[in-house]
């Protein structure tokens, strides 16, 4: 495991996952920004989030769900990041979800959920499709 001091509250189990996180061709900058904000929030609570997944192959999706399906993880750049939630506790998870609700007013497809999708309980952070944001930003004056 590597710990990146510049990213308070976040840590990466592999260098490859860290490199994927900082590569704008592989990770959407909007989801990275939200992840960094969540990291700062958990850091202020003296906790850490472990990033467990960003991009995902068709094979990995089939391993998780039994079939391939649409997912922010399957796009390039990835619009989704998963975090291990087991080490931070339910109270911290609720704090993160309550904090994140401010973004839900920006439109659908923003999400921070705590669920089990085949590999144990984890936080799933996702931002909208890029085209959805273009529609929002190009409103007539």
What features would you describe in this structure?
This protein has one domain: Muramoyl-pentapeptide Carboxypeptidase, domain 2. 36% of the residues lie in helices and 17% in strands. The protein is built from 5 helices and 5 strands; from the N terminus they run E-H-H-E-H-E-H-E-E-H. The longest helix is centred in the N-terminal third of the chain and has 16 residues, at 29-44. It is globular, with a radius of gyration of 15 Å. The termini are far apart. 26% of the residues are buried. Residues 133-141 have low confidence and may be disordered.
Largest sheet: 5 strands, mixed
Which residues sit in consecutive blocks of at least 5 with pLDDT less than 50? 133-141
DSSP helical segment count? 5
* CATH domain fold name: Muramoyl-pentapeptide Carboxypeptidase, domain 2
Strand content: 15-25%
Q: What structural class should be given to the helix and strand makeup?
A: alpha+beta
> What is the CATH level 1 assignment?
Alpha Beta
Order of helices and strands: EHHEHEHEEH
Q: What is the CATH-assigned architecture? A: 2-Layer Sandwich
First-to-last CA distance: 49 Å
From the spread of the alpha carbons, the general shape counts as globular
What share of residues is helical?
25-40%
The assembly state of the depicted protein chains is single chain
Number of strands: 5
**Looking across the biggest beta sheet, what order are the strands in?**
1-2-3-5-4
- When the domains are counted, the total is 1
CA-atom Rg in angstroms: 15 Å
Let me know the average pLDDT: 82
């Amino acid at each position: 495991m590597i710990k990146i001091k510049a990213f308070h509250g976040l840590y990466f189990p592999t260098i490859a996952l860290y490199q994927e996180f900082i590569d704008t061709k592989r990770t959407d900058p909007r989801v990275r920004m939200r992840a960094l904000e969540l990291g700062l929030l958990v850091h202020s609570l003296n906790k850490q989030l472990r990033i467990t997944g960003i991009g995902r192959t068709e094979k990995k999706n089939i391993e998780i769900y039994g079939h391939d399906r649409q997912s922010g993880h399957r796009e390039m750049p990835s619009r989704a990041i998963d975090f291990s939630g087991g080490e931070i506790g339910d109270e911290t998870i609720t704090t993160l979800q309550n904090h994140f609700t401010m973004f839900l007013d920006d439109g659908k497809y923003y999400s921070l959920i705590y669920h089990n999708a085949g590999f144990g309980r984890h936080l799933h952070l996702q931002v909208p499709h890029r085209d959805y944001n273009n529609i929002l930003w190009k409103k007539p004056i």
